[in-house]
Amino acid sequence: MNKELFEYVIRIADDSLILGQRLSEWCGHGPILEEDIALTNIALDLIGQATNLFEYASQIEGGDRNADQLAFLRFDREYRNLLLVEQPNGDFGDTLMRQFLFDAFRKPFFERLIACTDLQISGIAEKSLKETKYHLKHSSEWVIRLGDGTEESHNRIQNSLDSLWRYTDELFFENQVDAVLLDDFNFPKLSEIKEDWLKNVELVLDEATLAVPDNNWQFKGGREGLHSEHLGKILAEMQFMQRAYPNMEW
Amino acid sequence: MSKKEWPLWEVFIRSKAGLNHKHVGSLRAADAEMAIDNARDVYTRRSEGISIWVVPSNQITASDPTEADALFEPANSKIYRHPTFYDVPDGISHM
């Protein structure tokens, strides 16, 4: 098995899975019915992406574990998602800012990933890109409205931005996995994506009258399995059923 | 906490090319752009449409239900307005 390729796919899958799980916490709690449905729609898109990616990861691994086992039976240190996506929902503004910073990365990432030489990954990227374009539109519109809204909404979402900004450098984290795969598979160079990301983020933040934080302190570790305290709690809730009743189906 | 409701919008969906937009329901949104986004999420998640219109509900002028008799009754006795008194010649299809 190609260990690096497995890890590469797991990264993308874990980002989608954990953010999807987080967003699904809004189900029944959205500020209005329309947003309750919007957030859970996005959650479902993300879980769908994760399903496709875990199925492919299972193939790469040689079928030892199926997609469900990969999602539900790994330990926290084996998860490769970004710290950003495991951060708590907070208020509606926190959730939308987290979503915006992530979507703004995901769109150029999938756009470039389509050109990779692995047909499965390219196909998943093409399908996911359509969903991601809408996610980005939705989260951008909200960041603009909350930022350029009332004094209270402006201050609160500026706080969300200041707090979440510390998790954004990790979006572009690369290690030996990328070094081994990049040329062979024509995977995206994350340093190039960073330019696109920053340009789009600054454009939206400018329209939202929000200031890019000048604090450069950044967290990292998610891509190497070193997570914040929040992932354990997510997994406890997400994995409870499979661990309490192994192999259960419904 | 003050609770101000967003304006109400009426939603019209075109289910496929060639058909007209049909009223499907209403929703609340802060502005027209968000109303379109919300309509997409609320009314097209099962592939119901290919085009969306939203109209502010307060821009719709409706007929008065108490005038229904005056407005609609007179048409009931005028069956000759239906094109049902013609013999369709042989060879005309799709009628």
Task: Explain what this protein looks like in three dimensions.
The complex is a heterodimer of chains A (250) and B (95). Helix content of chain A is 68%, strand content 0%. Chain A has helices spanning 3-24, 33-61, 67-72, 83-86, 92-113, 119-147, 151-164, 176-185, 190-207, 229-244. Chain A has 10 helices and no strands. By secondary structure, chain B is an alpha+beta fold. Chain B has a domain at 1-59: Ubiquitin-like (UB roll) (Roll). In chain B, 22% of the residues lie in helices and 21% in strands. Chain B contains 2 helices and 3 strands, in the order E-E-H-E-H. In chain B, a hairpin with a 7-residue loop joins strand 1 and strand 2 (22-28). Chains A and B meet through helix 2 and helix 6 of A and helix 1 of B.
Q: How does CATH name the architecture of chain A?
A: Up-down Bundle
**CATH homologous superfamily name of chain A?**
Ferritin, core subunit, four-helix bundle
Instruction: Tally the beta strands of chain B.
Output: 3
Look at the structure and give the mean pLDDT of chain A.
96
The structural class of chain B is: alpha+beta
Shape of chain B: flat
CATH topology of chain A: Ferritin
Distance between the termini of chain A: 31 Å
**What is the helix/strand order of chain B?**
EEHEH
- The number of distinct β-strands of chain A equals 0
Strand content of chain B: 15-25%
Provide the CATH topology of one domain in chain B: Ubiquitin-like (UB roll)
Query: Helical element count of chain B?
Result: 2
What share of residues of chain A is helical?
55-70%
Shape, principal axes of CA atoms of chain A: globular
Largest sheet: number of strands, sense, barrel closure of chain B = 3 strands, antiparallel
Average pLDDT of chain B works out at 90
